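User: Could you go from structure to sequence for me? I need the amino acid at each position, not a summary. Structure tokens:
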């Protein structure tokens, strides 16, 4: 059964829950306040978001209805906390869940970047191990959850993106033709500037040249 697509906000909240369950286990499950702070981090997030607690709360309600989030009062019994149920709902191994979490939090990345950014969540022996899990996610019989993106100009590795929110947005990097045109325009602009500077110098020297030529004609 194909699961409904997530919104970008839902993906961010789930990504934070998965991440914090590994990086700050003592504070997990998370309170609403901690979850909002994690969603709005200025580092390790792409794009950076500015979600209010009410927006995070409504997102949690939607995810709870889909069994992706669970509520608990924890040991204190006073503050409501939230945990994720992502692995069970999507029927995925832990390593694949961690890769998707990093993709949800940081956007498309190469396998090398994913391996480095996943280190605190899951240790991959090498990039081939990362690619193995990504290939499995891309070829799931129940629907692909990851996709290999076209290689960008000047890049040595292709990037991977998740499909939990649908197809990743079109790449904004310039094409090779656009890059060549921009380079040509820059060179033409430099040449035009130099011509203008030389013209200004000649204009300043013109009176002196005229006087010198006049003096030489009189001597002759």
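Assistant: Here is the amino acid at each position, in order:
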């Amino acid at each position: 059964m194909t699961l409904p697509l997530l919104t970008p906000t839902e993906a961010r909240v789930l990504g934070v829950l998965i991440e914090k369950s590994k990086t700050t286990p003592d504070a997990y499950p998370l309170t609403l306040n901690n979850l909002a702070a994690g969603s709005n981090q200025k580092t390790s997030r792409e794009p950076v978001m500015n979600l209010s607690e009410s927006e995070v709360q409504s997102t949690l309600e939607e995810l709870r209805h889909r069994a992706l989030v669970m509520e608990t009062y924890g040991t204190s019994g006073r503050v409501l906390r939230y945990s994720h149920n992502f692995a069970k709902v999507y029927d995925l191994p832990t390593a694949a869940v961690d890769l998707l979490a990093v993709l949800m939090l940081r956007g498309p990345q190469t396998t090398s970047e994913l391996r480095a950014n996943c280190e605190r969540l899951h240790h991959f022996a090498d990039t081939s191990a990362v690619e193995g899990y990504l290939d499995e996610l891309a070829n799931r019989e129940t629907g692909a959850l990851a996709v290999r993106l076209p290689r960008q100009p000047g890049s040595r590795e292709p990037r991977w993106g998740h499909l939990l929110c649908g197809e990743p947005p079109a790449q904004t990097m310039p094409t090779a033709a656009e890059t060549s045109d921009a380079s040509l325009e820059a060179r033409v602009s430099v040449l035009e500037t130099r011509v203008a500077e030389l013209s200004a110098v000649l204009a300043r020297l013109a009176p002196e040249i005229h006087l010198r030529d006049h003096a030489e004609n009189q001597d002759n």
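One structural detail worth keeping in mind: Residues 115 and 124 are 6 Å apart (CA to CA).
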